[in-house]
Design a protein that fits this description.
Pathway: Porphyrin-containing compound metabolism; heme O biosynthesis; heme O from protoheme: step 1/1. Belongs to the UbiA prenyltransferase family. Protoheme IX farnesyltransferase subfamily. The chain is mostly helical. It folds into 2 domains: 1-166, UbiA prenyltransferase (Tetracycline Repressor, domain 2, Orthogonal Bundle); 168-299, Four Helix Bundle (Hemerythrin (Met), subunit A). The chain has helices at residues 2-10, 13-29, 39-66, 68-71, 89-110, 113-133, 140-160, 175-195, 197-203, 216-233, 235-238, 244-266, 268-292.
């Protein structure tokens, strides 16, 4: 059982669960809110969850195989299965590619091929673009936001399956949740980079915090990123994807996150983790608001 636990840990269950949640949420958002889910939709959602779980797990496994030497230099990652010696790098690579094959096979079989292609593109950008960029440029956070936001768009496309059975002329609405998740990641990961700046520096990761001894740059980036997120989060309401209840919900969430970012201006060392946790709470709540408050719901 110990070995099974080690291999399961390689998939980063919590991170994979977030990607699966995003993909499932995108699928549900793409529905016509005037039509109830049929059993076919629930079955599709189950297969989407399985497919994305395997592809997301593969991304995390291969990422750790590539970075295992650097992980061994950081306190928070030194005990991961590969750097700790519990799993060999070769075993991890085989396991990761098996998971990738299973996930893609599920998505290819049950959905239009664009779904599997986008899932594969997510894997490629995460492993072959974002991962190597982490030791080369501080722009890696922006690059990593793309594979982080693709799952919710993948879910949206999955619901269209062979043809778009969403509200007519609203196919492009899927880019709104994609944009929200994309922009959300920037201030969120800027806060992580500052919290674990010493670890990242020890391992040689080129995070923004490496060039920011005082933390002023981090605070500015987080504050500006939060303002950008507030603007993007209003787009579903402005373009009539979501209704008045969504507008009220997002205003409350934005006010809370903005207050948390303003507190960084007063004391970044004291309130950085508070912003980090506030951003974690923010994302699932705004995704749920997108699901439960579509335009056709009576405010």
């Amino acid at each position: 059982m110990g070995r099974v636990k080690d291999f399961l840990e390689l998939t980063k269950p919590r991170l994979s669960a977030m990607a699966v949640f995003s993909g499932s949420a995108g699928y549900v958002m793409a529905r016509d809110p005037n039509i109830s889910f049929a059993m076919e939709n629930y079955v599709e959602l189950l297969w989407l969850t399985i497919g994305l779980s395997f592809v997301g797990g593969a991304s995390n496994i291969v990422n750790q195989a590539v970075e295992h030497k650097l992980d061994g230099l950081m306190d928070r990652t030194a005990d991961r299965p590969i750097p700790s010696g519990r799993v060999k790098m070769g075993e991890a690579l085989v396991f990761g590619h098996v998971c990738l094959a299973i996930g893609l096979a599920v998505l290819f079989y049950f959905f239009r091929h664009e779904v599997a292609y986008l899932a594969l593109f997510t894997y490629v950008t995460y492993v072959f673009m974002y991962t190597p960029m982490k030791t080369r440029t501080a722009l890696n956070t922006i690059a990593g936001a793309f594979p982080g936001a693709f799952p919710i768009l993948t879910g949206w496309i999955a619901h269209s399956n062979n043809d778009f059975h969403t509200i007519p002329n609203t196919e492009w609405f899927g880019f709104f949740p994609f944009a929200i998740v994309f922009v959300w990641q920037l201030p969120h990961f800027f806060s992580i980079a500052w919290i674990y700046k010493d670890d990242y520096k020890r391992a040689g990761y080129k995070m923004m915090s490496l060039y920011d001894e005082t933390g002023k740059q981090a605070v500015i980036l987080i504050f500006v990123g939060t303002l950008g997120l507030m603007a993007v989060s209003l787009m579903p309401y402005m373009y009539k994807m979501s209704n008045g209840w969504y507008f009220i919900s997002v205003c409350i969430l934005n006010a809370g996150l903005l207050c948390s970012s303003v507190m960084l201006l007063a004391n970044r060392n004291r309130f950085m983790k508070q912003y980090f946790y506030a951003s974690i709470i923010y994302l699932p709540l705004i995704v749920l608001a997108l699901i439960f408050f579509p335009q056709t719901t009576t405010p």
